[in-house]
Design goal:
The structure is a single chain. By secondary structure, this protein is of the alpha+beta class. It contains six helices and ten strands; from the N terminus they run ββααβαββαββααβββ. Strands 4-6-7-9-8 form a five-stranded mixed β-sheet, covered by helices on one side. A three-stranded antiparallel β-sheet has the order 3-5-10. It has a two-stranded antiparallel sheet with strand order 1-2. α1 packs antiparallel against α2, α2 (about 75-105) packs parallel to α6 (about 230-240) and α3 (about 115-130) packs parallel to α4 (about 150-170). Bound molecules: adenosine-5'-diphosphate (ADP). Adenosine-5'-diphosphate binds near residues 194, 214, 224 and 225. This is histidine kinase.
Length: about 270
């Protein structure tokens, strides 16, 4: 145990040291073990996430193979094909999100160019409205003058991820409020507030872990990969920004991205 009471792993090595003498070398391998556990968890998670759609896919393909073509009504065949297509697309999203994550991890910060974030928000809102299918109300307050020095593709992905999540985790008739403004310190803030299912306090710090979902069944049925917030967090860190999450179970959540003043570029409109 270390002074703060936390368990540490020590590696003791006995090395011959002169005649009949030995040297005991102690190495603290806690960090190495933690990294190894994270790596193993990650491999286990990826395998599990891919195995589920693969099992469904295999099941349908075997059924199709075992059934004589004439005994399978066209409608049923089309339903099977649709399900297989969905599972294949889901696997494709997982692989593509994993590739995005590994690219993002390869460099800590990004310079980029001036990005008109308000335009990215507008198109993310259109996408969100399409997913919502008219079931939610959208309220917006967006300052078009605020631009950010950064990578457009990354900012676009972070901006739309928060809107997509708000739609996914807000029941019918809920309201989603999207704001883009400068706060009193001159930082650019993007906030997405929903009146959705909310998140328990103990889950909030874990949301940006890869594949972490509060309710696994519910999240999978929404079509997400469980990697969206992990990707968002990486993008935000690369832009020297911060992700803040406030939520109350059954009341709703606010996800906020805060960009430092040094990244803000004010434009004349
Ligand atoms: P997913 O693809 O599962 O949505 P994310 O990384 O985007 O993956 O989100 C991780 C988890 O965080 C979700 O599975 C969900 O449990 C929770 N979550 C994200 N956004 C919200 C929200 N607006 N309201 C409630 N829960 C949310």
């Amino acid at each position: 145990l270390s002074k703060d009471g936390r368990e540490r792993s020590l590696l003791l090595q006995l090395t011959p040291y002169g005649l009949g003498q030995f040297l005991i070398v102690t190495r603290d391998v806690t960090q190495v073990e933690m990294l190894e556990t994270t790596r193993k968890d990650f491999v286990a998670n990826v395998s599990h996430e891919l195995r589920t759609p693969l099992t469904v896919l295999l099941g349908f393909l075997e059924t199709l193979q075992d059934m004589p073509a004439e005994s399978l009504p066209l409608e049923q065949r089309q339903r099977y094909e649709q399900m297989m297509l969905e599972q294949t697309r889901h696997m494709q999203s997982i692989v593509s999100d994993l590739l995005t994550l590994s690219t993002l991890e390869s460099s800590p910060t990004v310079e980029g160019e001036t990005v008109q974030v308000s335009q990215l928000i507008e198109s993310a809102l259109k996408q969100g409205e399409a997913i919502s299918g008219g079931q939610h109300s959208f309220v917006t307050d967006i300052d078009p003058r605020i631009a950010i020095q950064g990578m457009e593709t990354e900012l676009s992905s972070a901006v739309s991820n928060l809107i997509t999540n708000a739609v996914r985790y807000t029941p019918k008739d809920g309201t989603i409020t999207v704001r883009w403004y400068l706060n009193d310190s001159g930082e650019a803030c993007y906030s997405v507030q929903d009146t959705g299912i909310g998140i328990a306090a103990q889950d909030i710090p874990r949301l940006t872990e890869r594949f972490y979902r509060v309710d696994k069944g519910r999240s999978r049925s929404t079509g997400g990969t469980g990697l969206g917030l992990a990707i968002t967090k990486h993008i935000i860190v690369r832009h020297n920004a911060e992700l803040q999450i406030q939520s109350r179970l059954g009341v709703g959540s606010v996800f906020m991205l805060r960009f430092p003043k040094s990244r803000v570029r004010l434009q004349d409109c």
